[in-house]
């Protein structure tokens, strides 16, 4: 992978990180600005349901943020784009679709099959 591709992926990962941080800040502002005195039980249930949904999304984004940080670390140490399983290059198309990918498509497929078999 050349420097131009690495820079492009680094910028993409940084943009993803900034978007997640913005979403988190917006969620915090919304949650702190909402009044907790909602007299109607149905309205209160809706607010709580929405809040729970929002928190689940933020939890998923937190996990994605960890993967973004790992990917940025791999860019810095020179291992970005190399499969953690077999050591082969990860296809550019895969990285374009999933810039945080640690595994080539073959290793990821095998990993998911093993997880599926263990889950039975």
Short description:
With 120 residues, the chain is mainly α. It has helices spanning 3-33, 41-77, 92-97, 105-118. Helices cover 73% and strands 0% of the residues.
Write up what this structure looks like.
The protein is an all-alpha fold. It folds into two domains: 1-79, DksA, coiled-coil domain (Four Helix Bundle (Hemerythrin (Met), subunit A)), CATH 1.20.120.910; 81-120, no CATH class. Helices cover 73% and strands 0% of the residues. It is built from four helices and no strands. The chain is elongated and about 60 Å long. The termini are far apart. The model has no long low-confidence stretch (mean pLDDT 91).
Keyword list:
120 residues, mainly alpha, Four Helix Bundle (Hemerythrin (Met), subunit A), elongated
Number of domains: 2
Number of strands: 0
Strand content of the residues, in percent? Answer: under 5%
The span between the termini is: 39 Å
Number of H/I helices: 4
**Main sheet: strands, sense, barrel:** none
List the helices and strands and how they pair.
Blueprint: H1 3-33, H2 41-77, H3 92-97, H4 105-118
Helix pairs in contact: 1-2
